[in-house]
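Weekly structure sync, notes
Attendees: PL (lead), two postdocs, one rotation student
Agenda item 3: pending single-chain targets
PL asked that the sequence for the first pending target be pasted directly into the notes so everyone works from the same version. It is reproduced below exactly as submitted, 218 residues in total.
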Amino acid sequence: MAGGAMNKALISLALPFATLLAACNMGAGGNASSGPDNVQGDLHGASIGAPFTLTNQDGKKVRWDDYKGQYRLVYFGYTYCPDVCPVDLQRIMQGFAKFEKDKPALAAKVQPMLISLDPERDTPAVLKTYVAAFHPRLIGLTGTPDEIAKVAKDFVVIYNKEEAKGASDYLVSHSRTPYLFGPDGAPVALVPVDDPATPDVDEGDPAKVIAFLEKWVK
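Predicted structure, written out during the meeting:
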């Protein structure tokens, strides 16, 4: 699964030049913007996101605009992911749960969602069991292969099905870009996740997720 290097390349396609310079100095999921004087996230002005209609874990059609007025914490992954996805989701949702406990009114303004990049296996029923293991408010979204391909393109996510010869199973390699979008649907910043390239630093610590949410959710 691709990590920090692919994320930076993807962001470079979407960000203005000035923001790109900052993005090149951050780890996977890190925030280039830091300090109390910054009022815009590292994705401000990026062409990331677009309206969509997908299917949630209850089999109901869901539109991106259904969450207008809410912050949207969006993670792309898949339920059969053997390592990075469940770890990322666990730590992000641990941070979110603590944020929810400490600041319930602010947390109520945030909708976390997992968008599957493996629609062939990630049926609503599979997603329902999976997302429930992380947090009761985490929703899972899937769709047809064409629907998912369009959403991935609109959200600047690269993914690829990897099938080994003779194997009945497969993996899905994908960029690791957990986003926070504002109430207007515009991208704000990348949610902190750990960067494998820096084993001595834990960028994805749930405490950093809490600090991230406290900074951006108003």
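Discussion points:
- The radius of gyration is 16 Å.
- The CA atoms of residues 119 and 146 lie 10 Å apart.
Action: rotation student to compare against the earlier draft before next sync.
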